[in-house]
Design a protein that fits this description.
about 150 residues; mainly alpha; about 0% strand
Length: about 150
Amino acid sequence: MTSSSRRRAKRSKTSSSVDPTTPTSDARNVDLNEAVDVDEGIQEELVRPTGRRKGTGKKTVESSSDLELKEDFEEMNRRLQDIRDIGHQRYEIMKERVAETKKSNEMQEARQMEKDIEFLSKPIDHLQGDVLIPAQMRRQKIREKYGL
């Protein structure tokens, strides 16, 4: 048994009851050993007392300062949205540039490979002296580069 199931609704003390034998509160007359039905306890908690309810009055009219704050907030919100949109556009442009750069690099590598293969396919038997050594070194570097 929880304390909330034993709880009774509070009653306010009135000045009209002068008789000391008249109970002024349910808390004085509650038997703690009394078994309370759980469903009954839940139903008691759900019942709300009648009377003044908070928050049910007329809405206040917005003052001019409230309207200015609301407009300022809306302006800041628009600016933040613009900043977010610009950031998204920059990100998309960067992705496109990276893709273009990658494609361009692949095309340059393909052209370089064609030039290297063309150089390897040319005969260098007719070269002599100072020209033969750099040609042989370049052929060696190309073979190492492509694993040939």
